Amino acid sequence: MKFNNKASDWGGGFVSVLIAIATGSAGYLFYQCRQDYRSKKEQENRENRRLEAERERAKEQSQAEKEDPELKLKKQDKEVKAYVFEKLGLDETNPPQSEPVCAYKAEGKRYSRPSLVGPLVSKGDLCVVVSQPGVGKSILASQMGDDIARGKASLLFPNSDVHQDPQPVFYWDAEMDSDDMKERYPEGLSGNFVRFSHCNYRDGFYLLKHIYDVVFSLFTDATIILDNWKALSARIDAYYFLTGLKKLQSLFEEKGTRLTIIIVIHTTKEACKKYDVDLGDVAGAAEITRYAKTVLFVNPIIDSLGIVELHDAKRRRAKKNEDILLVLKGGEGTTENIHFEAISMDDFKKIVNDSKPDFEEKRPGRKSKFTDEDDRDIARRLESGESAEDIAKDYGVKPKTIYDRAKRYRKKKS
């Protein structure tokens, strides 16, 4: 009987322990669930407060943008800049360094890229065309673009047999309107020639974004022409703009294609008083010299006759071309597109001789003061074989003066 009582006491104690454990576990579980619920609730409250604060800030910013539109534009500027930096791999905190130049060999021969416009422009070049306003650089750039779009030999090089496959050409134009294009190009331009007119961007990064969006999806060679970059946007950072273009060219090379870039640039205001311009007369010359493979200057020779000189001022990894004389033909009042054609010294002499009556009417009597254009004209006419006596008659001076003026011009040019 005593044994049974002890067993009963032991069994009751065991049950009590189980009940205590079960009660404690339930209490702990309840406590843990309550803590989890409170923690989750607090997290939700914090998130709701954060979202509410963001909505308030957005509301305040929206109200501020309505009152001051400049804030909205600044925000848009940052977004566009971030887009360009991301797509082109630019980093404002760590600017890209100069890339090493690799030596290319092809079966023991010097590597040369296919030419697009005679020896002037090759595939993948960054070419800059420079001149004073009104000389004809836009006409020259459009002509080069049309030749590339058609894949035909250029009239700038009559002896050249360069023929390439046609490729799309995209022309960003900030100067000419539709009426100007109709007058200059009555025959029309190639179907591969795409022109964006009335281009004016708030910032250079907007222009880079537009260029990227237009051309990056292409899986073929392409050419872009920017006429002219300061008119396209007054706020262009030369370093980042040219670096972005070079990055875009690199992206094309990764796809096995080439992007050719032609940029039209005005000279500085001081250079407008000169007839011979050089790299020092170009705004942003330091960056252009660093990145451009070719720099072409269009210098006026005789404005009234539409004769200009194409001067190869800079050429990387190749010998510079000799200066080329060009004459302007076609355009308004004719049925052919306005364009330049290369002429020889004999052609130049003939044009000048045929226009002698015009010169005599413009320069009656003795010439008392010579301009840079007069000196250039004299030097060219002597080089073409015309006698100093005949030139002296046109200017009403002695032949010795003609020789002195030509000597002065050559010395100044050298």
Description:
The strands form three sheets. The protein has a nine-stranded mixed sheet, sandwiched between helices. A two-stranded antiparallel ribbon has the order 1-2. Strands 3-4 form a two-stranded antiparallel sheet. Helix 5 runs parallel beside helix 7 and helix 11 crosses helix 13. The chain folds into two domains: 112-343, P-loop containing nucleotide triphosphate hydrolases (Rossmann fold); 350-413, no CATH class. 48% of the residues lie in helices and 16% in strands. By secondary structure, it is α/β, with parallel strands linked by helices. Helix 4 links the parallel strand 6 (169-173) and strand 7 (193-196). The chain starts with a helix and ends with a helix. It contains 13 helices and 13 strands.
Let me know the number of strands: 13
Low-confidence stretches: 96-108, 358-366
Broad shape: elongated
With strands numbered from the N-terminus, the spatial order across the biggest sheet is: 7-6-8-9-5-10-11-12-13
CATH topology of the largest domain: Rossmann fold
CATH class of the largest domain: Alpha Beta
Order of helices and strands: HHEEEEEHEHEHEHHEHEEEEHHHHH
> How big is the Rg?
37 Å
Q: Beta-sheet strand percentage?
A: 15-25%
Outline of the structure:
The protein is α/β, with parallel strands linked by helices.
